[in-house]
Amino acid sequence: MSWRSAFLLQAQSDNRVRRAINSGHIEYAHQLHYLQMATEKLAKGFATPEAEVCPPAKVHHAFVRFQHALKRRQDIQHQLGYPKSDSFTWFVKSVLPLAEKVEHLAPNFAGTTQPNPEYPWQATPAHRVIAPAEFEFPEFDARSPEMARLVWLVDQLLRIVT
Amino acid sequence: MTQGNGLHNGRRAEIERQARLLARDNRIAEPAITRVLWFPDNEEVRLLEVDDTVPSTGDGIIHPFYFRPSPKDALPSPSALALIRPEEFGKAKLPPNWGDWSNAIELETER
């Protein structure tokens, strides 16, 4: 298996776990964690040439950069069922702000002072230490139209890469 | 000209056709694109687009995204698309095998 295929396969698996734990019984942080990992691997897969024999390099803002590339692609636009480029471009642009926030959920962006779905952090200015499992992540409301669009886009992209 | 050269030139012409098609489509999809450069290759389309709405490379190294062929969209060859900000033009490190900045051909397309 190529590095590209392996990253895309693992992104699909991460996304399946995200869907499987979409339950009121399991803390929302876990869904966000798997969503962040799926998007990161999806972008890394596309950033890796088919014949590449070396592991992919770290790509700065990979998922957001990938969204910028994506909105230019008429072939993917058609595969996702958009007959017109302007509506597809609007759709991808509408997802960008949330995509950037999801990208910043990664621990290397969030550090120890910003919310992230994996490790506890210390909120300022109250200095209260917060565990992801007790945090509601209001900026990532699962019922918001923005999150619904982002999740749909990730689902569809992972569907067409097979 | 040998038959091999003929095939080589035909392939190159097809790659260039696809490069120009993608450049045109991309400018339509993203009006913020200010320049489109084509790095000629006989196997894949290699485009670099300058766009001040994209994040910086961060590490000064250009990392393209790679897309498979899509013959039904008139894209029979694989393609690579790199996005950079204006201040990175001519300075960022190109991907391996893309040559140097002097290899680039600027594609002027009507919007």
How would you describe this structure to a colleague?
The complex is a heterodimer of chains A (162) and B (111). Chain A is mainly α and 162 residues long. Chain A has seven helices and two strands; from the N terminus they run H-H-H-H-H-H-E-E-H. Helices cover 56% and strands 2% of the residues of chain A. Chain A has a two-stranded antiparallel ribbon with strand order 1-2. In chain A, strand 1 and strand 2 form a beta hairpin. In chain A, helix 2 packs across helix 7. The longest helix of chain A has 19 residues. Chain A is globular and about 50 Å long. By secondary structure, chain B is α+β, with helices and mostly antiparallel strands. Chain B has one domain: Beta Polymerase, domain 2, CATH 3.30.460. Chain B is built from one helix and five strands, in the order αβββββ. In chain B, a hairpin with a 6-residue loop joins strand 1 and strand 2. The relative contact order of chain B is 0.22. At the A-B interface, helix 3, helix 4 and helix 5 of A face helix 1, strand 3 and strand 4 of B.
| Order of helix and strand elements from N to C terminus of chain B | HEEEEE
Count of domains of chain B: 1
Number of DSSP E strands of chain A: 2
Largest sheet: spatial strand order of chain A? 1-2
Number of helices of chain B: 1
Indicate the low-confidence ranges of chain A by residue numbers.
Answer: none
Domain count of chain A: the total is: 1
Radius of gyration of chain A: 16 Å
Strand order, sheet with most strands of chain B:
3-4-2-1-5
Helix content of chain A: 55-70%
Beta-strand percent range of chain A = under 5%
Which consecutive residue ranges of chain B, at least 5 long each, have pLDDT under 50?
none
Radius of gyration from the alpha-carbon trace of chain B, in angstroms? 14 Å
Oligomer: heterodimer
Distance between the termini of chain B: 37 Å
Mean pLDDT figure of chain A: 93
Order of helices and strands of chain A: HHHHHHEEH
Tally the beta strands of chain B. 5
Biggest sheet overview of chain B: 5 strands, mixed
- Terminal residue distance of chain A: 13 Å
The main β sheet of chain A shows up as: 2 strands, antiparallel
